[in-house]
Amino acid sequence: MIIITSPQEILTGELSVPGDKSITHRAIMLGALAHGTTEIKRFLDADDCWSTVNCLRALGVKISRKGNRLLIEGRNKKLLKPAADLDAGNSGTTARLMLGLLAGQDFQARITGDHSLQKRPMKRVVDPLEQMGAAFDENTDNLPLTIRGGSLQPIVYKTPRASAQIKSAILLAGLYAQGQTIVKEPYQSRNHTELMLSCFGVEPEVEGNQVGIKGGVALKGSQVIVPGDISAAAFLIVAAVITPGSELLLKEVGVNDTRKGIIELLLKMGAHVELQDEKLWGKERVADIFVQGGARLKGVHVSGEMIPRLIDEIPALAVAASLAEGQTVISDASELRVKESDRISTLAVQLKKMGAKIVETADGMIIEGTEKLKGADVEACGDHRIAMALAIAGLAAQGETAVSGAEVINISFPGFMQSLRSLLDK
Predict the structure, then answer these.
(1) Residues 99, 116: Cα–Cα separation, whole Å
(2) Per-residue pLDDT tens for 233-257?
(3) Active site residues
């Protein structure tokens, strides 16, 4: 699929973005492990989340859909041996967190994924799970992986990087260990797993960048309302920021402190972004996000503890930086090289086609802002966030921009172009 965007005067209106992908994954998994029924409202109806649903159905979990709700009949932590390979599709979250669930099961299972996912590193999750007592076949770095679960021991594990997927996989396995499992991170990664565990009756012990969980505790079915996904909202926010005269209101978006780095960075760049009507849904903070376009943006330096708080939003940030005054330096972001694409290289190659001035570094990029981009034929390269970044860049480019391979957007934001056009067609 090819999508085409062209320069626009303004974006106006309000809309809701799809449910948060990270929260949807975790709600489905914890609901599957709980005793009783779990109801998930406003779940993300996208390919990645259906990969999680399908894996759990193959493990004996009954999951039904009622409109915008999922109903899950939990199996009280005891899953069934699958009759075939578990397919995680394109979803790294499904694959890595599912390994944590499978580590506590007394059977062998094999998990695989699509061509892209089979290239992504898994050893970062395999290593701690092996320390806890799970066994793997000889290949431990890439899918497909065969795991033999069983009796687990608690560990204290210091992660080499701040990663919610590593942390969550260990915590999920820790539910099956006798004693306390502790995860220590160099910086705090997104904390949806910890917050959601407490909604299911398990209280993690959180102290700074350290999280502990006691095994052997039963989970209770719960009701989860999923906020809008700030990673999806980021592309619409940046679209409005770079389009003078725009006024956009995004309703009920998750603004968890471990996820709203993109808001803080855009404010630092000089953008007009405002949080309104803040409230709590369960343990998650939610707000309406109001954006006005036209502010002159300034370059920023992004590194260290900020990176885990906006890692998925860097493609959107790169577009804003390409149009900012001065230099933006992004570092400590080598994780971008092992996403759905090598996002450092892909962003540099594709945005350069549009006249952006980007230099790759080993762990990030240096972007010199320019006043105007130019329309071009660009490629999504199999990456949903690259596709959306290029589409919004086209709004601030002279001439038409055609993004090929844009069907991958359905992985995280079905209806993205319809949403964008609804704000433009006034």
Answers:
(1) 18
(2) 999 999 999 999 999 999 999 999 9
(3) 312
